[in-house]
Here is the input.
Amino acid sequence: MKDELRKTGMLVVHYDTSDDRQRILRILERSGFRIPRTVRAAVVTRFYPHRTCLICADLIRKSVANSPQPFICAAMVSSGVRLYTVSELERMAELGFECLPRYPVFHVPHDGNVFPEDLMADVIIPAGDFMAYHEAMRDRHVRELIPRPYVGQMLKTFEVSRLLCDVERLIGPGEIMERVGMGFCYEKAYDGTVIKRVTERTRAAARVYYDRHHREIDAMCERHPRMLFFDMHSYTDAIVPAFARVPGRPTPDLCVGTDPRFTPPQLTEIVLRRFREAGFRTAVNEPYSGVYVPESVMDGSGGCDFAGIMLEFDRRVYCGGDGEPDRQQVERIRQIIRAVMADCVDLE
Here is the structure.
């Protein structure tokens, strides 16, 4: 909620293990918080799959309370209450709780699996062929890479197939992908095959879905005046266009997309360092470039202090040969992203 930490003084920290719980209490105790015996003595015997184990710290009264009941915790997450990691808490404590971390938002715009009839009406290839292109070009399973505590109101998805409406394209001649028939309203698939007959009616119908999504993102920017935005994508080598490839150079495990105006250099450095330390081959703006920036941020009509970066993973790094997620790799990437977020506590 808008500037909630400074307004209410309530800090909610989530943990995954008993060791993390004890670490939270030690950090708070060193910072002068009173730890009641009931909190110190509590034993957690069950860790819920959506990370609903929380400790609540009141920054004004310097008091600590155990987590509410699991169903209350889940409601807090779904309603957009900001949950902090143990590492974030540690960094905030080092800074004397004077630094308010940016509100994290994860954007997954290209894994929509809905096919509205008004948008499908102009498809001119067989349904089976269309679905094959859809599966090849959607960002399959990328949502699973997002740390679980952030899949409530901190996650924004787009439900419609990107082949019918791509909300990350610009409208008009400024969009470079319009030249290859892949603007916000696709005429062609990645290999140049014409998949739709695009008319003014088609564009008008797609704009309804496009505009609604952008309004919802702008509303999130209004609610959260300092935002840390992760634009989440995936790709396979088969769909990378020739003009985006560097001859003789393999595609990276992670493509980091940046915008010179809205991606602080410190954010790029943090992401590259964390993933390179974990053994990922990374590249900046290759084979894809840029990051989604909300319209209200672009045109200056909103007041959001926005910092964003694109994380585009080659599917080989988190999926097996069958195309299904490798659970160990997925969890590994989640942990790296959480480390990135912790490093961004005092990001300007």
